[in-house]
Amino acid sequence: MAGARTGRAAEGENQMQDSYVQVSGNLTADPVIRTFPSGAVVCNFRIGVSSRWRDRQSGQWRDGEATFYTVSCWRQLAENASESLHKGDRVIVVGRLRDRSWTTPEGEQRTSHEIDADTVGPDLTRHVASLRKSYRSASSRLLKGAGTDASEAAA
Question: 3-class SS at 95?
Answer without folding.
Answer: strand
